[in-house]
Amino acid sequence: MKATATRSGSLRQAVRIRDHQFTIDEPTDKGGSDQGPSPQEILAASLAACTAITMEMYAKRKGWDVGDVEVACDYTPAERGCPTRFNLVMRFPDTMGDEQVERLRVIAAKCPVHRTLEGEVMFDERIERVTLAR
């Protein structure tokens, strides 16, 4: 998986993933122009979306009609002495049975983004110098 970010404004980034392009920016109070969600908001959105997709795929395999499921993610980055905290709220139709809801709660924690965030993370970084087009 690969994403490429290229400066397209003060802090604004044009992000390319496969054939898709979108904008990531910081809010104005952080020095950006608020032309898109911040990188931190994209992280929360990735976890919320992956959780919802994982539950939906599981429910589909089980033949369960779960209707409209919503996942909200509030994210607080790590600060001195406090870990990064993700608070997920999964909203299911009240017609779903307790066993289905509990199974989907367990499955939610197995989404690929959740596993990535809770696992060991390593970074390999390098610098490449390029001639900029003028």
Q: What does this entry look like structurally?
A:
- The chain is α+β, with helices and mostly antiparallel strands.
- It folds into 2 domains: 1-36; 38-118, 2-Layer Sandwich (GMP Synthetase, Chain A, domain 3).
- The chain contains 3 helices and 5 strands.
- It has helices at residues 39-62, 98-108, 112-118, and strands spanning 4-7, 13-17, 20-24, 70-76, 85-91.
- Helix 1 crosses helix 2.
- The model has no long low-confidence stretch (mean pLDDT 93).
Summarize the structure.
By secondary structure, this protein is of the alpha+beta class.
The shape, in one word, is elongated
Radius of gyration: 19 Å
Roughly what fraction of the amino acids lie in strands? Answer: 15-25%
Kindly provide the name of the CATH class of the largest domain. Alpha Beta
Kindly report the CATH topology of the largest domain.
GMP Synthetase, Chain A, domain 3
The CATH superfamily of the largest domain is identified as: K homology (KH) domain
Helix fraction bin: 25-40%
The SSE string, one letter per element, is EEEHEEHH
Number of domains: 2
Tags for this entry?
elongated, 2 domains, 21% strand, single chain, alpha+beta, two-stranded antiparallel sheet, 3 helices
